[in-house]
Write a structure and sequence with these properties.
heterodimer, A: about 110 residues, mainly beta, six-stranded mixed beta sheet, five-stranded antiparallel beta sheet, B: about 110 residues, seven-stranded mixed beta sheet, four-stranded antiparallel beta sheet, about 0% helix, globular
Chain lengths: ~110, ~110
C-alpha cells in the first residue's frame, strides 16, 4: 500500500528565505505527482504536476523535482513571502488500477514571517 | 481555468437527516471524486466516478452513497447523518490521469 510522508509537519521561516518542502513515497510505480496549496478552511489549489518521466517542473518562484527511484519529491520556494503561508500537500497518482486512487501526504504547514 | 463548484461552504445538519452535497465542474472531465479531510488523518477518498452512472468505492465508503446522472455533476449523499461524519468534504475532478482540480470545500457539522 502506498504511503506518502511529508516532513516536517510545520515550518516557520523569515520572509525572503528560500526553502524546500519534502515529500516521500514508498511505491515508485507512480503515474505522476502533484503539489497543492491549501489555505485554512479552503479547498486545495494545484501548484505543479510532474509526470513520472519528468525530473522537474517550474512555475514562477516554485520548482518541483521528482526522483522516482528514491521515492522523493521536493518543492522549492524561492524568496518566500508572507502570502506563501499555507499548508502544502503532495499527492501521488498510481500507475495501476485506473490511476484514480491517489494517495495524499498530510502536509507541511508553512508560516512565512515578516 | 477549471472551475469546480460545491454548492455549500457550510452546512449544519441533525443526526439522522439525509444530506446531499453537490458538486459541479465545467470542463467536461470524466473523473470526479469525493474526499473528506480530517485533522491528523489527511484526505481520504470516499467515492469516485469515471463516467456518467459509473462509480467506485474509495477507502471509506461506509455511510455514503453517490450519484452521477450528468457528466458535470457528482453528488454525495449521507443517508442518515451521524456525528462522526462531521468533516470538511472536498470534491475534485480530472481529465484522465491529469491534474486534479478541487472545489472550495463544504464544512459539514452534524449535531
Amino acid at each position: 500500500k502506498q504511503e506518502v510522508t511529508q516532513i516536517p509537519a510545520a515550518l516557520s521561516v523569515p520572509e525572503g528565505e528560500n526553502l524546500v518542502l519534502n515529500c516521500s513515497f514508498t511505491d515508485s510505480a507512480i503515474y505522476n505527482l502533484q503539489w497543492f496549496r491549501q489555505d485554512p478552511g479552503k479547498g486545495l489549489t494545484s501548484l505543479l504536476l510532474i509526470q513520472s518521466s519528468q525530473r522537474e517542473q517550474t512555475s514562477g518562484r516554485l520548482n518541483a523535482s521528482l526522483d522516482k527511484s528514491s521515492g522523493r519529491s521536493t518543492l522549492y520556494i524561492a524568496a518566500s513571502q508572507p502570502g506563501d503561508s499555507a499548508t502544502y500537500l503532495c499527492a501521488v497518482r498510481p500507475h495501476t488500477g485506473g490511476g484514480n486512487k491517489l494517495t495524499f501526504g498530510t502536509g507541511t504547514q508553512l508560516k512565512v514571517e515578516l | 481555468d477549471v472551475k469546480v463548484t460545491q454548492s455549500s461552504r457550510y452546512l449544519v445538519k441533525r443526526t439522522g437527516e439525509k444530506v446531499f452535497l453537490e458538486c459541479v465542474q465545467d470542463m467536461d472531465h470524466e473523473n470526479m471524486f469525493w474526499y473528506r479531510q480530517d485533522p491528523g488523518l489527511g484526505l481520504r477518498l470516499i467515492y469516485f466516478s469515471y463516467d456518467v452512472k459509473m462509480k467506485e468505492k474509495g477507502d471509506i465508503p461506509e455511510g455514503y452513497s453517490v450519484s452521477r446522472e450528468k457528466k458535470e455533476r457528482f453528488s454525495l449523499i449521507l443517508e442518515s447523518a451521524s456525528t462522526n461524519q462531521t468533516s470538511m468534504y472536498l470534491c475534485a475532478s480530472s481529465f484522465g490521469r491529469e491534474k486534479l482540480f478541487f472545489g472550495s470545500g463544504t464544512q459539514l457539522s452534524v449535531l
